[in-house]
Write a structure and sequence with these properties.
alpha/beta, binds adenosine monophosphate, 5-stranded parallel β-sheet
Length: 194
Amino acid sequence: MFNLILFGPPGSGKGTQSNRLIEKYGWIHLSTGDLLRAEIAKQTPLGIEAKHLMDHGHLVPDEVVIGMIGSALDANPQAKGFLFDGFPRTVAQAEALDKLLTFKKTGINLLIFLHVGDEELVHRLVERGKNSGRSDDNAETARKRIEVYKRDTTPVADYYSRFGKVVHVPGEGSIDDIFGALTREIDGKAEKAA
Ligand code: AMP
């Protein structure tokens, strides 16, 4: 089993690269953003509350997303691995994830940190907003999301670096080149683990 966290700021290409990675490696893609948007689409009470926070660029409470991830792990007992995208976003979420995985006799193998400059991120999110239908893809919310990311989420990378699990990959360039860099890191780590 191989469990990967694809890490990086909003707009760093995690979603795009995740789709390619799960196709190549056959993992289960767990995006808390996608899970929350599914709740919004169904207009569940959780979705309605989350939408308000998401539209303002704030994080949804830890216990909500941890609960979602716990259920998704339970729902996929035969998985070859999980790709976490947009989760964990706080150190409390990282600690909870580690506990959940330990309980399942597995753990995080690797965190790949995608690096993209702030102005490029805002540009990408605004461009994406023209077609994504996402009400949080606008310049103002994008700036807030980047601020929240720097304050609450970057400590997650520090948390995993203490365990020697972090590698850094440039997130600017062609989608193919970035994908190549990601697969080299994953294959290198998987070989070492084998
Ligand atoms: P994303 O699709 O990953 O960009 O997430 C969109 C929004 O959903 C974020 O700005 C947060 O409001 C919320 N969200 C997604 N994942 C998480 C998470 N792990 N913890 C808290 N809030 C989250």
